[in-house]
């Protein structure tokens, strides 16, 4: 750990300690106001509605902003929520103090070779104990194959529905390349990718693009090729530079190279869709605002409609029974013509876990939208709370199924992360002023931006009706994590602390689907093993991990 990082940690801890009395006072005032108002009046009204069925929902990865928002949505609309997550170092996670949870389960760390087995066993135990109706995984580090294995076992051995990919669908979402190949096979537009076996093929692609696109030429077998030559950006500034560069590339028919369109410089948008039985039930598109925040895209805009149509077409061409929540990042390519500017959208990455776009479904109306979308995957026994009039819902019709797509309104507040912006816009610039690396004017500029987000945007974790998780995160959990990390760093034995530096905010997604953050995400491929009901007469499975979990549950291992 560098000296600058150590100073930042100490500055954050000192700031939290100095604000503890004031924040605690605000917390008490917050709770006093909540107590004076009719408690859970909307929730109690829904529960008492004739024909209403209260479901039990298990949410794993509950400590993520998405998991916490989803738990609050289900609780607000009259359902019971059970949360589960990993608590590194034994410190209680902020989400476990949420008023929306009926019960919280702590997932225990297991050795690498037992993680899949114990994870699935823990899910079965919780589902059986709590009589869960639907399991929704909000873990950001979810492995599609492990989730698919868990779904297969859970749905065959319990009455619980699993909202996620099946074993047949998981391979198409395992990697970025697999997703793009699958998307292309469905006839949808994707970024250009070629396997070139000669220099002529490279020049042909560059000529057809008319310098409107840029490409990355990289070797599939970099052994024996200088590092500076194994990856080349094309075209160069001039045609002669391009020809000279390509001429030096050792392309052979037996050793093809990969030529891929790059998205550098193109506008980026993120989308999130809840898909049930190949129908898009809820959709939102957003764009980044600079410091980890995001703003919703107008649902009536042509760009939003294009991305929605893409997701509807993609969903309709999946296997029967396909249900999942997908986050797809798009890049937008603009071309000028006689009638104006033509925008082409291309998917660049996919994630199969709940995305930050879920946070744009705000208020009572947003809770109803989310609840109705997810519960549509359950067998219809009666009208669920999604049919209650909890607010205006913006919808569009799907031509293929006449289903309605719920979307946030255009005036939805932007999303930001208090901790990340406090660090990047306030404390780090202040540290720069103290070390004379920045001026006071620069600090006041970033401080003004922070205050604007604080007043007009919505934090990804705070809720006025449920304030304790936010207070616990910034006054207890994060300061203790920072102090422990700093202590272990000073001792030179950071491996003794069983947790990476605390994750203040969700990591950003890279093009290849990997998480990118200076602070590592929680991994939920962990689990409990005690008290799992033993079963017998399980069928054998070709997949070794699935069969291993089966054998564990049946007591054979």
Q: Roughly what is the average pLDDT, rounded to an integer?
A: 81
Can you name the CATH architecture of the largest domain?
A: 3-Layer(aba) Sandwich
Describe the main β-sheet briefly. Answer: 5 strands, parallel
Would you tell me the structural class of the helices and strands?
alpha/beta
- The count of domains is 4
> Which sequence of strands runs across the widest sheet?
3-2-1-4-5
What's the overall geometry?
Answer: globular
- Distance linking N and C termini: 43 Å
Number of helices in the DSSP assignment:
14
> What is Rg?
25 Å
Number of strands: 20
Helix content: 25-40%
Please, could you describe this protein's structure?
This is ATP-grasp domain-containing protein. The chain crosses the membrane at residues 6-34. Keywords: Membrane, Transmembrane, Transmembrane helix. There is one protein chain. The protein has 557 residues and is of the alpha/beta class. It has four domains: 3-34 and 415-516, no CATH class; 37-168 and 522-554, 3-Layer(aba) Sandwich (Rossmann fold); 172-187 and 266-407, D-amino Acid Aminotransferase, Chain A, domain 1, CATH 3.30.470; 193-261, Dna Ligase, domain 1, CATH 3.30.1490. The protein contains 14 helices and 20 strands. The chain has helices spanning 3-36, 41-47, 65-76, 115-130, 144-157, 176-185, 199-209, 239-247, 302-316, 363-375, 418-434, 440-456, 468-491, 544-554, and strands spanning 56-60, 80-86, 101-107, 134-137, 161-163, 193-196, 215-219, 231-234, 257-261, 267-276, 279-288, 294-296, 324-337, 340-351, 394-397, 404-407, 415-416, 458-459, 508-509, 515-516. The strands form six sheets. A five-stranded parallel beta sheet has the order 3-2-1-4-5, sandwiched between helices. A five-stranded antiparallel beta sheet has the order 12-11-10-13-14, sandwiched between helices. A four-stranded antiparallel beta sheet has the order 6-9-7-8, covered by helices on one side. Helix 1 runs antiparallel to helix 13 and helix 11 (418-434) packs antiparallel against helix 12 (440-456). The longest helix has 34 residues, at 3-36. 40% of the residues are buried.
């Amino acid at each position: 750990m560098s000296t600058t990082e150590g100073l930042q940690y100490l500055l954050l801890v000192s700031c939290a300690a100095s604000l503890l009395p004031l924040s605690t006072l605000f917390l008490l005032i917050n709770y006093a106001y909540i107590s004076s108002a009719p408690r859970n009046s909307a929730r109690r009204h829904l529960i008492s509605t004739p024909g209403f069925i209260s479901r039990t929902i298990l949410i794993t990865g509950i400590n993520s902003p998405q998991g916490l928002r989803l738990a609050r949505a289900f609780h607000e609309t009259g359902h019971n929520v059970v949360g589960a997550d990993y608590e590194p170092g034994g410190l209680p996670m902020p989400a476990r103090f949420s008023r929306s949870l009926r019960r919280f389960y702590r997932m225990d760390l297991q050795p690498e070779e037992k993680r899949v087995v114990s994870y699935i066993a823990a899910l079965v135990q919780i589902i059986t104990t709590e009589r869960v109706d639907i399991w929704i995984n909000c873990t950001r580090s979810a492995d599609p194959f492990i989730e698919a294995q868990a779904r297969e076992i859970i749905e065959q051995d319990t009455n619980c529905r699993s909202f996620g990919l099946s074993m047949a669908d998981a391979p198409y979402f395992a990697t970025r390349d697999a997703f793009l190949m699958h998307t292309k096979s469905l006839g949808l537009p994707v970024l250009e990718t070629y396997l070139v076996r000669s220099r002529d093929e490279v020049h042909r692609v560059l000529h057809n693009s008319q310098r409107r696109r840029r490409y990355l030429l990289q070797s599939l077998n970099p052994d024996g090729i200088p590092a500076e030559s194994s990856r080349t950006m094309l075209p160069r500034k001039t045609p002669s530079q391009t020809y000279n560069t390509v001429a030096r590339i050792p392309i052979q028919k037996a050793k093809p190279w990969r030529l891929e369109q790059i998205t550098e410089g193109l506008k980026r948008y993120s989308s999130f869709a809840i898909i049930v039985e190949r129908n898009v039930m809820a959709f939102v598109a957003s764009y980044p605002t600079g410091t980890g925040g995001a703003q919703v895209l107008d649902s009536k805009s042509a760009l939003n409609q294009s991305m929605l149509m893409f997701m509807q077409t993609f969903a309709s061409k999946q296997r029967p029974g396909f249900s999942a929540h997908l986050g797809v990042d798009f890049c937008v390519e603009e071309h000028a013509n006689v009638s104006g500017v033509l925008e082409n959208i291309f998917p660049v990455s996919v994630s199969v876990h709940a995305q930050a776009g879920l946070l744009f479904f705000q208020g009572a109306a947003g809770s109803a939208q989310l609840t109705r979308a997810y519960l549509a995957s359950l067998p219809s026994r009666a009208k669920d709370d999604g049919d209650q009039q909890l607010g205006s819902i913006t919808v569009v019709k799907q031509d293929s199924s006449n289903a309605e797509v719920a979307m946030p309104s255009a005036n939805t507040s932007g999303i930001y992360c208090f901790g990340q912006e406090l660090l990047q816009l306030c404390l780090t610039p202040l540290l720069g002023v103290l070390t004379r690396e920045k001026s006071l004017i620069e600090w006041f500029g970033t401080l003004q931006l922070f205050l604007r987000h604080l007043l007009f945007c919505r934090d990804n974790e705070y809720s006025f009706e449920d304030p304790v998780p936010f207070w616990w995160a910034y006054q207890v959990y994060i300061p203790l994590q920072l102090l422990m990390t700093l202590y272990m760093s000073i001792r030179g034995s950071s491996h003794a602390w069983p947790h990476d530096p605390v994750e203040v905010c969700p990591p950003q997604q890279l093009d290849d689907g990997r998480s990118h953050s200076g602070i590592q995400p929680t991994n939920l491929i962990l689990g409990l093993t005690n008290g799992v009901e033993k079963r017998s007469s399980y069928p054998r499975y070709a997949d070794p991990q699935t069969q291993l979990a089966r054998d564990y549950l049946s007591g054979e291992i």
